[in-house]
Amino acid sequence: MDITGKITGIKYKILLSEDLQKIDLSTLNINLAPSCFLVEDNKHTFAVSKWVSPKRTRSYPYERVYNTLNIKKNNT
Question: pTM for the whole thing?
Answer without folding.
Answer: 0.64
